Amino acid sequence: MRVPLIEYGIAEFVLPGQVESGDHHLICSNQDGVLIAAIDGIGHGEEAANAAKAAICILKNCIDVPIISLVERCHDELRLTRGIVLSLAFIDASRGMMTWLGIGNIQGVLMRAGAKKGTVLEMLLLRGGVVGSQLPPLQATVLPVARGDTLFFVTDGVRGEFTESLSALESPQRAADRLLERYHSGKDDALVLVARLTGTRQ
């Protein structure tokens, strides 16, 4: 079996006055590929964090389920929580394909290997709604991916102009730290997730 190898970096900002962030992430693999998720619990504080953590448990336990079914399962099981918004990507490196889906306002960007500033980026189509409360019609997008392609997920505590300074050259952790430091609004929890496809292994 081939298992994709992902190099990734995470940077987080907790809103001052809160004990923990409502923004969480998951990177989890199975025999077919790797699931990458950025999750934002609605609101702030403990209840937002609990909703996000509940979503992570669901995603971990159902990683073999297709993305649309994953979101539907989260929706059904999070009805008693505040709800979440999330963006998901599943990378099947052996087939060179990525399937992604976004509900809410967690931005997703795919930057191709070797791309320079100003290069056209693949942007995740976001659909309005709240998982656990109001789910829109779901449609996933499938894109080809190759070694060196880099995926960026940022929650709404990061200003949208972060796309102006993306680089395919710096390490994922350096990129995550730089983007958070430069673009977090300071008015909300914030999370930056950067994942680069580094290849496959037997």
Q: Could you give a short description of this structure?
A:
This protein is 20% helix and 36% strand. It has 202 residues and is of the alpha+beta class.
Please give a structural write-up:
With 202 residues, the protein is an alpha+beta fold. It has a single domain, classed as Phosphatase 2c, domain 1, CATH 3.60.40. It is built from 3 helices and 11 strands. The strands form 2 sheets. Strands 2, 3, 4, 5, 8 and 9 form a 6-stranded mixed sheet that branches. Strands 1-11-10-6-7 form a 5-stranded antiparallel sheet. A hairpin with a 4-residue loop joins strand 2 (23-29) and strand 3. The termini are close together.
Q: The CATH topology is what?
A: Phosphatase 2c, domain 1
Q: Which percent band covers the strand fraction?
A: 35-45%
| Subunit arrangement of the protein | single chain
Query: Helical proportion?
Result: 10-25%
CATH class category name: Alpha Beta
First and last CA, distance? 6 Å
The description of the largest β-sheet is: 6 strands, mixed
> What is the β-strand count?
11
How would you name the CATH homologous superfamily?
A: PPM-type phosphatase domain
Computed over alpha carbons, the radius of gyration is 16 Å
Give the H and E element order: EEEHHEEEEEEEHE
Continuous helix count: 3
